[in-house]
Amino acid sequence: MEGGEAAPPAAEEKGGEEEDDFGYRLFPDRNKKPQSFLARSFFTFHNRCQLMLRMTLETSPYAQLLLEAMKQSGCTVFSDRHFSCEDCDGCVSGGFDSATSQIVLCQNNIRQQSHMNRVVTHELIHAFDHCRAHVDWFKNVKHLACSEIRAANLSGDCTLMNEIARFKFGLKGHHQTCVRDRAIRSILAVRKVSKETAEKAVDEVFDACFNDLEPFGRIPHSKRDAKRAYRDFQNRDRYNANL
């Protein structure tokens, strides 16, 4: 998740103790009755979100590669079914709801096209992982950690320019540090676990998941890298089709 992982079904309270809600508290619109099209049309946040989403899906090489990879894996993504623009808690920008296979875009927190591009890419990586693997989002914190590592690593979250904008600077190993830190933050945002538990889960799977570059085949540090990765992905598929 961008700023927090997304939402499996909310847990019930048992024995008077508060159970983990798996992050649904960050996405209050998930539990509301859907508004009519006419009602939504009067909310500029919603309209802006829809327009920016369309632009991302049509122009972002990150998103285009992930959409094509998911289609080839048998998980075709439809913009009207698998994306939902909603109001969210102030600390998150998006999430992947594995219960509905739907990406939530936080229309009140996403205000720039570049931010939308990054959020959609981040959440599509979660969706891709959900498609290709038996990810236990609910109970296995290592599975969640692995997908968060991959999303931070491959979505552009930790590019040099984004880190400079956050006033974070570093030299050797800074990209890895950023990926680790953002993965831990995302886990803590949506799981009622200690920081030590989140750090342990990330550290135990970090090397394997950081080096899992599918479907990009490389870490796309820029839009140019993403375009090259998309071209290589298409050429790889053409080569495989001729075998």
TrEMBL record:
One annotated GO molecular function: metal ion binding
E.C. no: 3.4.24.-
Keyword annotations of the record: Hydrolase, Metal-binding, Metalloprotease, Protease
Bias-annotated ranges (Low complexity): 1-10
The UniProt record lists the keyword Metal-binding: yes
InterPro entries recorded: Peptidase_M76_ATP23
Disordered, as annotated region: 1-25
Signal sequence annotation: none
GO biological process: mitochondrial protein processing; mitochondrial proton-transporting ATP synthase complex assembly
Pfam families tied to this protein: Peptidase_M76
Any one GO CC term of the record: mitochondrion
Family to which this protein belongs: Belongs to the peptidase M76 family.
Protein name as it appears in the record: Mitochondrial inner membrane protease ATP23
Organism: Nyctibius bracteatus (Rufous potoo)
